């Protein structure tokens, strides 16, 4: 039975989110394998991830202003339309020139458009969730929201790997074009309307959100540290085709198994964050422990070549990361004034993207220059060391510890 607090708008939002995140997952996985097969270079795969992040970095501040000023369904609908257009362009190119450099080039451009779409979608979804979900239910709602995202990644990754082998890139991207169009139709049905927001110049609105962050150093430093962790995970994820094919000796058809373990483990970690100790002092030690678990998982992945133990290590990484994501999202949103939430969340996304724009190319170019047949163990060992240092900094920095220990009246103290 569906709980009473899950209303019509929330159902439509989550259905649309499930479809859009599926499209995003297919783009990331299928795009990585398509570019690898055309170019055979880790640098090209790193640039794909870079293009999925760079335009969003530029658009994130404006997306936050839009989320605070407009009805939430407007940026959410625009995001769906942009994503559908980008995937349609890749499908047309892939059908006409499946193995040409033109397909790789169009794919990089489409990734940039998708980055813009997701930049406007994220803050608007956060604002809408906070408006239509009771405060006490927010950690649970965020856990469900992110869990649906992982389910979408499971469906998208499985579909991408299997469909690439069976039907080719054109069919894959044509299919997710239709999926993105259906998601757009769901967002058109959202009925929530916010009261008129006070108007002020865009530049002043941007500075207001940034000033709030600057005056909340615990939030700023914590999200900066977590951004380094997320960027490292994204950079390592760009190496996934090389890990699967070169390190484990598998092909793209093995991706559904990886996606299943990642989704189930991530949802478990999010559920733990939503149900236990999501408020007060427990958070101050739970988050560093979860980050340390992610570091240990990365280190194990670099040492393991058997598929069974590798899946266990992937599960540890996904569970730890899922836990951290829910904790950070709840903390950032609920510790910010209601009128600034869209801008705060967009600046958080900007910090994440800025870190990734630096870290991901470094990982890609570093892997390219390694004079070894299997680059994966070295890359994963370096990633584990960096993430471990971040966990230590979260423990030893008093400003971060105080911020993590804030009591917000959500979840359990």
Q: What would the average pLDDT be, to the nearest integer?
A: 81
According to CATH, the fold-level topology is Growth Hormone, Chain: A
In CATH, what is the class?
Mainly Alpha
Shape: globular
CATH architecture: Up-down Bundle
Low-confidence segments, given as residue ranges, are none
- Termini separation (Å)? 27 Å
Helix content percent band: over 70%
Helix-strand string: HHHHHHHHHHHHHHHH
Tally of individual domains: 1
* Major sheet summary line: none
Helical region count? 16
Q: Structural class of the helix and strand makeup?
A: mainly alpha
Radius of gyration: 20 Å
| Annotated CATH homologous superfamily | MFS general substrate transporter like domains
- Fraction of residues in β-strands: under 5%
**Using DSSP, what is the number of strands?**
0
Describe the structure.
With 413 residues, the chain is mainly α. It has a single domain, classed as Growth Hormone, Chain: A (Up-down Bundle). The protein has 16 helices and no strands. The chain starts with 7 loop residues before the first helix and ends in a 9-residue tail after the last helix. The model has no long low-confidence stretch (mean pLDDT 81).
